[in-house]
Specification:
Strand content: 5-15%
Order of helices and strands: HHEHEEEHEHEHEHEHHHEHH
Number of strands: 9
Distance between the termini: 144 Å
Largest sheet: 9 strands, mixed
Bound molecules: guanosine-5'-triphosphate, magnesium ion
Length: 425
């Protein structure tokens, strides 16, 4: 049914790949952390212990190595801190009024971001999940979230004050209201790409940690030079960025004549852009990166469906079912792509660092083991040498005793003999 077309009702979400991997890598780093603490306690006891009696070479672990073990703890703590903040990030770009904010709202199944005709989004707006029950807003000038009771309030917060277009506003939205936020996705909405002269700064500030880029294009016109230029810049900074192209407003375009021809033209043009120009996918993969959608219809029908009453068909333009299906299809492909990509880019570096820390710790503990073995052997050798000396002494004493006994016997016999002969005489 249409109700099941969107956003993960009744199916295992592809985003779970990231969610589960994050949980797993967290557990592993907790174990490594426990092991490091245990090793550190052990090493500190070793350093504090008295040298064994009679042993000259007493240092089981050098002070430098003891320091190294101590250092592992803060390294692991650092990684765990970064891990807790790791998430999947999707950024949306496109010309003014192409429907970026509407696409995000449709994916979130809620009218969170202000949208409208004209230049609506004036700065970068990030939507992220929060464990609080109430929504709040964080601006760059303060660490204190301000509570947010309505979308109207947000709209006025966004329009009041002179917001610079490269400033960032963070909306902390209750996770329990939205699956995608619960599953650790962060959405970043941007002002129209055509209004900023400084795209480099945008890329440096907002895009370097992005896992997926969505170019929201207007199906009524082909991609413009500004849009293409931006993505050329992105792909020169990031190796093979994941780019999706949404040909939005397809509800309006599909009414036009010879629409199949126009659609094919868009497909050819976008494929050429992604595969030949940007070289971020091959031609075959490019078909899973271009979608013909209507964000407006997706949002309207989802909001309506979530109330439990089906959307009256007259609200939507003919052929809307196929477009809703296409939107859900985009989301499926997007979820698979973002979770795979984020697991690789975010966790691979942690895995490598975790491996190198455990290897280093293993080598230090290995050294401790070898040194303590050598010490034990030399102690045993010493004990053996003393035992040999004692043995020799006992034997000598034995020999001596036997000699003395013999001498006494001879003397006694001699005396006896002498006494006997004296008696005879
Ligand atoms: P800026 O924030 O100004 O850069 O614009 P934007 O890209 O965020 O566009 P926004 O989501 O504000 O949408 C602009 C207007 O287009 C709004 O009135 C939307 O309702 C409308 N709109 C968005 N998507 C569609 C669509 O798929 N079909 C139709 N017919 N209208 C749409
Ligand atoms: Mg907008």
């Amino acid at each position: 049914s249409l109700r099941n077309l969107g956003n993960g009702h009744g199916r295992e979400s592809a985003l779970q790949l990231f969610v589960q991997a994050k949980k797993r890598i967290n557990d592993i780093f907790k174990d490594i952390g426990d092991y490091v603490v245990e090793a550190d306690t052990f090493v500190r006891k070793l350093v504090a212990s008295k040298p064994a009696v009679g042993v000259t070479e007493t240092e089981v672990i050098s002070p430098e190595n003891a320091e190294v073990v101590k250092g592992f703890k803060s390294k692991i703590d650092g990684i765990r801190e970064v891990l807790a903040r790791d998430h999947m990030k999707v950024v949306f770009f496109g010309r003014t009024s192409n429907g970026k904010s509407t696409v995000i709202n449709a994916m979130l199944r809620e009218k969170i971001l202000p949208s409208g005709i004209g230049h609506t989004t004036h700065c970068f707006i990030q939507v992220e999940g929060s464990d609080n029950q109430e929504a709040s807003v964080l601006t760059e000038d303060s660490n204190l979230p301000k509570s947010l009771h309505s979308i109207k309030e947000l709209a006025s917060a966004l329009s009041s004050g002179k917001l610079k277009e490269n400033s960032l506003i963070r909306i902390l939205w209750p996770k329990n209201k939205c699956r995608l936020l619960r599953e650790d996705i962060i959405f970043l909405d941007s002002p129209g790409i055509d209004v900023s002269p400084d795209l480099d700064e945008w890329i440096d500030k907002f895009c370097l940690d992005a896992d997926v880029f969505v170019l929201v294009a207007n199906a009524e016109s082909t991609l413009m030079q500004t849009e293409k230029k931006f993505f050329h810049k992105v792909s020169s900074r990031l190796s093979k960025p994941n780019v999706f192209v949404l040909q939005n407003r397809w509800d309006v375009s599909e009414m036009e004549e010879e629409i199949d021809k126009v659609k094919q033209q868009h497909i050819d043009y976008n494929t050429q852009f992604l595969a030949d120009e940007l070289q971020v996918v091959d031609k075959r993969e490019a078909k899973d990166r271009v979608f013909f959608v209507s964000a407006r219809e997706a949002l309207v029908s989802r909001l309506q469906n979530d109330t439990g009453i089906p959307t009256p068909d007259r609200v939507l333009l003919p052929g809307f079912q196929a477009r809703l299906f296409e939107f859900a299809n985009f989301e499926n492909k997007f979820e698979v792509c973002i979770s795979k990509s984020a697991v690789k880019t975010k966790f691979e570096q942690h895995t490598d660092r975790g491996k190198s820390i455990t290897c280093d710790l293993r080598s230090v503990m290995g050294q401790v083991y070898t040194t303590s073995n050598t010490l034990q052997e030399s102690q045993q050798r010493l004990r053996q040498e003393r035992a040999d000396e004692l043995d020799f002494l006992i034997k000598q004493l034995d020999l001596l005793t036997r000699e003395v006994k013999e001498k006494i016997r001879v003397m006694v016999e001699d005396v006896e003999r002498k006494v006997a002969s004296a008696l005879n005489d």
